[in-house]
Amino acid sequence: MTKKTFQAPRGTRDLLPDDQVYFDYLNSTFKNVVKAAGFRQITTPAFEDTNLFVRGVGKETDVVDKEMYSFVDKSNNSLTLRPEGTAPIVRSYLENGMQAWPQPVKLYYTMSMYRYDRPQAGRYREFWQYGLEMIGDKDPFADVMVISTAYRFYQKLGLADHITLQLNSIGCQKCRPKYIKELTSFYKENEKKICNNCKSRVESNPLRLLDCKEAKCQALIEEAPQVINFLCTECHDHFKKVLELLDEINVTYEINPRLVRGLDYYTRTVFEFWTDRDGSQNALCGGGRYDNLVENFGGKSTPALGFAGGTDRTIEFIKSHPEIEILESRKVDIFVVQLGNEARKNCLKLLSSFWDEEVAAEGGLDKEGISGQLSHANRLQAKYALIIGQKEAYDQTVIIKEMASGNQETYPLDKIVKEIKKRLK
Ligand code: AMP
Question: How far is the CA of 131 from the centre of ligand 1 (A)?
Answer without folding.
Answer: 11
